[in-house]
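Ticket #4471: complex job returned nothing on first submit. Input attached below:
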Amino acid sequence: AASIAIVKQELREDTDLDIEAKIIELCTLTPKGITDDVIKAAVPQCDIQQRVTAVNRLLSTNRIELMKSGAKLLYKLKDPDAASQIKGADTEEKVVFQIIKDAQNKGIWTRDIRMKSNLKNIQVLNKILKNLESKKLIKAVKSVTASKKKVYMLYNLEPDQSVTGGPWYSASEFESEFVEILNAQAHKFLQQKALDASIVYPEDPWKRLQTSYASADNVLQHITNLGISKVNLSVKDMESILDTLIYDGKAELSARLSGSSGGESIKIYRAKQPLTDTSGLVKTPCGVCPVITRCTVDGLISPKTCVYMKDWLDF
Amino acid sequence: MSRLKLELCEQLLKECYGEIVASVGMSLLHNKSSPLAMIIHRTKMEAKQIKQALCSLIQQNIVTFHKNNAGLTEYSGSSDAILCRLRFPHYIHCAKTLFGDAAEFLVEELLVQGRSTLGDAVNKTVNKLNESLAVSKSSIPEISQNLIKDKVSILVKARLIRRCHDVSRDKDGKVISMDDMSNPEILFDPPREYDYEKSTGSKRSAGEICEVPLKKIKLEDGEEASSLGKPSETGPSYWCVNVHQFHHHFRDQAIISAVAKIIDQKASEVMRTMLRLSETKTVPTDSISAHLSFTEICTAMPKDKIMTSNVMDQYLKCLSENCSGFVTKVGESGGGMFQINFSKAVEALCISEIETIVLERFGSKALRMYRVLLAEKQVEQKQVEEKAMLPPKEAKELLYKMFAENFVTLTELSKAPDHAPARTFYFFNVNLLQVSRMLLEKCYKATANVIVRRQKCMSENKRLLDKQERVDAIISSLDAAEQKEEIEQMVTLSERKQLKKVGEASKVLETSELLLDRTIFILEAFINSTIKPLPVIKK
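Support reply: We reran it on our side without changes. The output follows.
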């Protein structure tokens, strides 16, 4: 009986290692993570106790990590590099690091870290963050939306658009001059295109109209050729600049089906003029007068004594 | 009737007709309609003066009268008729461009007189034209009456002048009320021979057999007035200017010039032809015109602007694909059926006017944000900033400035039932009708101010202007050159400079009145196009 017990013991030890190896193998196969059921299917001869021991051992040696998906538990293979990264750090730091890593390139705010890690003490958290920063594992990035807020993310990641604001923000300040320059250049390009079209097709109004349209891509190429932008602009950025032109009333939008078999419609733009001349109301001082609501015929402010009218009539 | 509109009416009445008529007119405008006794009580003037004032106002088509339930005659005034006075130069200019000098003088005569018989109008026009010919010493022979009479028929056919509303009488032959004639058959009935007779109070018109001798019509209060005869009776009828037709013409003009700006001059000619065609086919107050076919438009184009059908087709394509939605293609029969959408056109023109006002008042950055709001309806403040790509501080300042002056409205949408500001969405949007009305009031105020300023300018320099007039009168009566020079010396150099300044200032003020009137016209056209007619209760 004793020998049978010894044999069983040996078997069990072997199977323990087997289970661990099997688990590692399964994890490598499915990088997304495996559930308990998958392990059970792979090593049917082991019982639940052995599986649990194997999993726990792998977890403590940091070979795999535990994730939760819905109500189920997932085991995922851990990156050996990552394992080495936080070597020497204690569990609290590990937890904080994990949370920041999960936030990826959007970054995470200190308060959110505190909530997720359940750490009550702010000083402890700050110390951990400072530690990690000095180890060059994480960095703080100023958010463009709320300038006082700092978000933390992994050191080697590029901050996301929503944090830095894209090409229009440099050092988290809105660069209005840059936008205005691009706006003016795009307008000039569209106007030139319309002029060229009217020279080429003086008698064909429809063709003239069609050739005076330009797509966002065309405008983008023209601007990149001019070389006024230090940053690389995407087509989407160009579209937002052209939208501001539309809102200025200097351009109009239309759609054209692209000639390829894809059949997608692309946005095209054209320079245009306003429908009516400047209104008569603003050609008189009354139209732009700041105190018009207090103006009465025989009052302190009246047309008879109006200073603005006097200047206007004396030119 | 808003306060500012009434103030403007008062200014206009005072300027054109004097204090007495102004106070009578204003008393009528402040109250919907009042009998004579009420007017006397309110204005505290002599009955005789009031009656004369009423007569001149009726003559000018500003006041109408009817019998009320109590059996008294009530008088009511119309503020729109008074505001038309601002547009007189525009009407006259329009008549001139459409039909020439003779038409210009005819329309001017009818406008100044309010209503007149054709005979009088024609005579005066002939005299004016012949005078100007004599002065210019040209070799053109004298204008004959028949030429002018032809012009009159052309104007009637174009519906620019019409017969005046007649009066209805009761069994005693007394005048009780003005007819509310809107039958186009009668209004635009071409003038007959007797319409050109001289209007006389008591004589029988020659050549007409009449059973009933011309009576002097008695008004209810015993006052006598000149005869306002019906066409069936003897005597010529009165004619006046049909302002509604002129307004349609102005609206068409605005659309044509807008099309010229969007596409080009030739396209505006196409638009003009289409509008001319739709005039005959559509009821004027409709928001969309009747269908016009491609072949119709082609054949209707004026001879000197004819173009190949290919080019015409292209222009129509441009017009219908245009994003303002003026013209839409509705079918393929007849080479393509097109329809003009007047309400959209007027709305686009109105929006454009408002945009220019925002541009001048707040700046180009504010205009950008305004157009974002127009395009996106309800937007949060942050979104406006992002779309317009403006620095947040500036954007915030401009947006709130526009909000303070009521160009922009705010809608609150709370997330929580306690409506806490931190948990509420605040949406900005533009309510076009509200903004138009607000700007219309501002225009009225500006026009009133300009008129007041002009009068002040004139009265301040009255002495100088009178002096200049006398000097001119003396010079024109003299012949010798040295005496002329002597008299001219009476006006010193500095006085001459002052006079020149006054002249320029009044010119600037008058032009601004006309420009303000254009804006008033477009805003009013838009507001009226949004008013739906009241449902008719069938008894």
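The CA atoms of residues 359 and 388 of chain B lie 15 Å apart. Closing as resolved unless it happens again.
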